[in-house]
Structures are given as structure tokens and as C-alpha cells.
């Protein structure tokens, strides 16, 4: 199981695989079981947005175990959250915001059960 951090600019936290594009994120979701997914919304001028990733997660059933949104776009966060929340399978956790520091530290230390 892997953790995925999708962002076109920010540094990847320890314990995560970095997806610099929406297509890289979708490839990881299609090919691996994903524990924690952290999404940005605005992925640069020539890429899709995190909303498109959320839409394809729903359409293709690519649900990770847990999702956070570290985007600075309030509108984008709301759109992604609502799209995923409406379709989430039982047991999937969706947090309407970024990962808290203690969760980041737990993942970095290899303790993904935090």
C-alpha cells in the first residue's frame, strides 16, 4: 500500500509518493492500493485540476482509504470534497482540509495506523 501526494509545486512529505500531474496521480490510483491521498486542486496552467481527479476516482472506483485536501483553493476543496463524499464507499475517510501534523509525522515514521 502506498500514500500519494498530488501537487505541482509543493515538496512531498516523507512517506508519500509524489504525483506532479493529475495523470501521474491517476496512474498510481489505478495501479496501487492507496492508503492516504492528499490532493491539490490547481495543478498548473496546462494540467487538469484536482476536481477532475476526484471525478475519475468516482467514475472508475479508484477510492483510496483516506483523503485529505491540502489545496489553497477554497472552492476547489469544496468541489472535490462534495464529489468524493457523495460517492464514497463505506469505511472511506474524507477530511475537509489538510493533514494534521501528527498524521504527517506518523506516516513519516512508518506508522500509518495513526
Spell out the key features of this protein:
5 strands; alpha/beta; 4 helices
Structural write-up:
Keywords: Cell cycle, Cell division. It comes from Paenibacillus wynnii. This is Cell division protein FtsJ. The model has no long low-confidence stretch (mean pLDDT 96). It is globular and about 35 Å long. It is α/β, with parallel strands linked by helices. The chain has helices at residues 22-31, 50-60, 74-87, 101-108, and strands at 2-6, 17-19, 34-39, 66-69, 93-94. The protein is built from 4 helices and 5 strands. The chain has a 5-stranded parallel β-sheet with strand order 2-1-3-4-5. 32% of the residues are buried. β3, α2 and β4 form a beta-alpha-beta unit. The protein has one domain (2-20, 28-94).
Uncertain regions spanning at least 5 consecutive residues: none
Compute the number of strand runs.
Answer: 5
Helical amount: 25-40%
Element-by-element helix/strand order = EEHEHEHEH
> How many H/I helical runs?
4
Cα-based radius of gyration, to the nearest Å: 13 Å
Please outline the major beta sheet. Answer: 5 strands, parallel
Give the neighbour order of strands across the main sheet: 2-1-3-4-5
Portion in strands = 15-25%
Total of domains: 1
Class from secondary-structure proportions: alpha/beta
Measured between the Cα atoms of the first and last residue, the distance is 15 Å
| Global outline | globular
The pLDDT mean sits at: 96
Amino acid at each position: 500500500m502506498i500514500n500519494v501526494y498530488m501537487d505541482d509545486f509543493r515538496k512531498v512529505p516523507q512517506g508519500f509518493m509524489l504525483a506532479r500531474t493529475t495523470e501521474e496521480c491517476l496512474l498510481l490510483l489505478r495501479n496501487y492500493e492507496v492508503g492516504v491521498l492528499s490532493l491539490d486542486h490547481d495543478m498548473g496552467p496546462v494540467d487538469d485540476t484536482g476536481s477532475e481527479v476526484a471525478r475519475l476516482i468516482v467514475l472508475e472506483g479508484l477510492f483510496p482509504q483516506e483523503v485529505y485536501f491540502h489545496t489553497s483553493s477554497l472552492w476547489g476543496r469544496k468541489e472535490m470534497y462534495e464529489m468524493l463524499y457523495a460517492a464514497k464507499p463505506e469505511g472511506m475517510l474524507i477530511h475537509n482540509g489538510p493533514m494534521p501534523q501528527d498524521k504527517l509525522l506518523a506516516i513519516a515514521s512508518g506508522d500509518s495506523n495513526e
